[in-house]
Amino acid sequence: MSRLNVIFSASVTGILGALALVGAYLLILTAVSGWDFTLDQFYTFWYFIVSLALGFGIQIGLYTYLRRAIHRGDASGKILAVSGTTSTAAMISCCTHYLTNILPFIGIAGFVTVVAQYQIELFWFGLASNAAGILYIGNKVVKFAAAKARKEPSILEQA
Questions:
Q1: Cα 70 to Cα 72: distance, rounded to the nearest angstrom
Q2: Residue 101 confidence (pLDDT) above 90
Q3: pLDDT at 95
Q4: How many other β-carbons are positioned within 10 Å of the β-carbon of residue 5?
Q5: Residue 118 to residue 116: CA distance in whole angstroms
Q6: CA pair distance 71, 126, nearest whole angstrom
Q7: 89, 111, 90: which is closest to 99 by C-alpha?
Q8: CB 79 within 8 A of CB 132
Q9: What is the mean pLDDT of the segment spanning 23-31?
């Protein structure tokens, strides 16, 4: 696979990842609270939602590029999974206070109340997790590219 094909496929994968995250947000929020509420929340918090999705998409793209460039997986997928899960949780947190209508029967209404109170903080935590994931995977990509430029086996390829 040529370098251009690797970059293109990684970019497409990243875009699809970002769209999937927004789709999951819209689907879950609509299922819990209805379409009107979903639109209201999206309009209110669009800058968080779009930023979280873009960060997640960038991580997916970088990870895909790195994985395909060295023709094997790496432990950086763990960082991607953690920050992606945090992004999803932060985006969904904006609707959790509406789950209190049904969750008392399950017994976790207190948890939902706490999450709803810290909705903005969860968004910021999700953004920080995205930044950490991008820096981590980006650092791996830079090291890999530098080793390739020197025609040395990179640390990732030796592992």
A1: 6
A2: no
A3: 46
A4: 10
A5: 5
A6: 30
A7: 111
A8: yes
A9: 87
| DSSP type of residue 99 | G
- pTM for the whole structure: 0.70
| pLDDT value for 13 | 94
Q: How far apart are CA 144 and CA 155, in angstroms?
A: 8
The mean predicted confidence, pLDDT, of the chain is 74
Asked whether 65 and 10 are in contact (CB, 8 A), the reply is: yes
User: From the centroid of its chain, how far is CA 89?
Assistant: 10
Q: What is the dihedral of CA 131, 136, 138, 140, to 10 degrees?
A: 180
d(CA 55, CA 49): 10
> What integer is the mean pLDDT of 65-71?
79
Q: Residue with structure tokens 């030796």?
A: 158
Residue type, 148: K
List, for residues 6-18, the tens digit of each pLDDT value.
889 999 999 999 9
DSSP assignment, residue 71? Answer: T
Judge residue 112's burial from the number of C-beta atoms within 10 Å of its C-beta, 0-12 exposed, 13-18 middle, 19 or more buried.
buried
Is 62 within 8 Å of 11 (Cβ atoms)? Answer: no
